[in-house]
What we know:
Blueprint: H1 10-22, H2 41-47, H3 59-66, H4 75-86, E1 95-99, H5 106-114, E2 122-126, H6 133-138, E3 142-145, E4 163-166
Parallel strand pairs: 1-2, 1-3, 3-4
Amino acid sequence: KIELDENxxxxxxxxxxxxxxNDSEVHxxxxxxxxxxxIDAEQILNAVSPQKDVDGFHPINVxxxxxxxxxxxxxxxxxxxxxxxxxxxxxxGKKCVVMGRSNIVGKPMVQLMLQKxxxxxxxxxxxxxxxxxxxxxxSADILIAALGQPGFVTADMVKPGAVVIDVGTTRVPDAx
Length: 176
């Protein structure tokens, strides 16, 4: 674990990543997001060697994953797929609705659920501009919510018997 000052310059951070990329004792690099506002996260993530990009954010890993080639895969989407398999949730041919289109969860989740050698589902992605979100959600056998808006999914948006996975990480006040 390497903790750097939040005021670090982009160039200094890129230098740190380059050192890790070139260090044969380092086998994986995970950049903790979000980065400070003055740092371009895309530039930093792209600087991580694809061979050490354990988060699966580098465009090479994203592309390889999207076409079903071996690649590092984003942890949360892989965790969701593992959860579905662990509990023997049938996915082949099932209608999956992924709520959210982030590069960290939504987009990779869509790709994993589509994979023929993976979940083999029929997938719809809904987001903030989707019309009739509730109707789309009600059609899902598997509903994966990754919106960043707590309480967005309500009971009337879920059909009976559907599997719902909420990967939201938004902090909300605890009244207790």
